[in-house]
Design brief:
The protein is mainly α. It is 50% helix and 9% strand. A two-stranded antiparallel ribbon has the order 1-2. It is extended, with a radius of gyration of 17 Å.
């Protein structure tokens, strides 16, 4: 995308760089849940809408983590209970 096209769409250079970096991370999405090892099909749109992807840029080895909806809900529940006790 050249400068005139970006200007027409209102996209700034830093936003485009960020978007390109995020698209590059798509190939690093694992093929299973990090917690329960349930398989993930990258071509299944329903799974893509339910599962959660977490990107940690500080972790250079494996910045992309994938969690199924069940594991993610359980983790959120535990976190909520923990914060309520504090």
């Amino acid at each position: 995308m050249n400068r005139a096209q970006r200007r027409k769409l209102g996209i700034k250079k830093k936003d485009q760089d960020k978007m390109e970096k995020q698209i590059g991370l798509f190939n690093k999405i694992p093929d299973h849940c990090l917690s329960c090892q349930k398989p993930y099909d990258k071509n299944n749109k329903q799974l893509a809408m339910k599962w959660t992807v977490v990107v940690k840029e500080q972790d250079k080895d494996n910045p992309v983590r994938l969690y199924c909806d069940e594991c993610w809900d359980l983790a959120q529940k535990i976190l909520k209970e923990y914060t309520e006790k504090q």
